[in-house]
Amino acid sequence: MSRVLIFGLLLTTCSIAFASDPSPLQDFCVADPKSQVLVNGLVCKDPKLVRADDFLFRGLNLMGNTSNNVGSNVTQVTVAQVPGLNTLAISMARIDFAPMGINPPHTHPRATEILTVIEGRILVGFVTSNPENRLITKVLEKGDVFVFPEGLIHFQKNIGHGYAVAIAGLSSQNPGVITIANAVFGSNPNIAGDILAKAFQVDVKVVDKIQSKF
Description:
single chain; alpha+beta; five-stranded antiparallel beta sheet; signal; metal-binding; RmlC_Cupin_sf; disulfide bond
């Protein structure tokens, strides 16, 4: 087998291994939400039925409601909102923060995130995987950009005196989100209290109290 062929096979293998979403094989594959067919992703709509609105989202200029326990709101623009994103391996979100509001520790299992601060001053950070669990953190000003690698736990906090806004780009049409506190303490059904007590090195009563809040 020639070196060129071997090199080509390696490149192909690497591209498949590192791709979060499958690459498109046509100009577009607008998602058909009415289809009953189950695939890894979403079934394509008949191209003849595709319209401009399949690629459109309106309202990202509007502030989200931050009147909640964490003081933030995420407006998602994924394939669920824009069917034309299907197979394009990209999505975005607007994050609004009340003063001292947070986007609590969470992870995107299928996407790297790149965040741009539009307004305000935001503390951001992510934690590396075991065994180091190193916290990498930075204070961002208006116009700053920060990257959160795929799958790593990360967070944002508004440390300014007013409201803050950020725009995030994500490397998947459906990045997914797992909010750590909700997943651990608000699972359905609950994770057994003795398991969480041992994991967090606290009394079971503490776990019960936290679980009651979710």
